[in-house]
Amino acid sequence: MTLHLERPNPRARRWPMMRRDVAILLWASFLAACVATMFFFAMFDPLLLAHDDAPPRWLSDRMTGYTCGFFFFWFIGATASFLTAFLIDARADGRDEV
C-alpha cells in the first residue's frame, strides 16, 4: 500500500501576517457572536423586544431581530478581539513602561 502525498503548490502564496491576524480575529468574534446570539435569543423573543409604541416597519420581523442581534454581537466581539490584540502587541513592543 502506497501513500501519495500532495506536494505543495510552489505558486501558492502565504497570507501576510497582518491579513492572517485579522482573519483569525474575525473568525473568533464570529464564533463568539454565534454563541451569544443563541444564548440571548433563547431567553428573549425579538418580537417582544421590538414591541414598542411604534417600532420601525423593518424591525417587525423576527428574522430581522435575529440578524440585527447577531451583527451587534459580532461587532462587540470583533471590537473586543482587536483591542485585545492591540494591547498584546503594544506590550510585546515594550511600550508598557509607566
Secondary structure topology:
Blueprint: H1 17-43, H2 46-49, H3 62-92
Helix pairs in contact: 1-3
Transmembrane segments: 21-44, 64-88
Keywords: Membrane, Transmembrane, Transmembrane helix
Task: Label this structure with key terms.
single chain; 98 residues; mainly alpha; 3 helices; 0% strand
Describe the model:
By secondary structure, this protein is an all-alpha fold. It has a domain at 34-50 and 57-93. Helices cover 63% and strands 0% of the residues. The protein has three helices and no strands. α1 (17-43) crosses α3. It is elongated, with a radius of gyration of 21 Å. The mean pLDDT is 83. Keywords: Membrane, Transmembrane, Transmembrane helix. The chain crosses the membrane at residues 21-44, 64-88.
Quick summary:
It contains three helices and no strands.
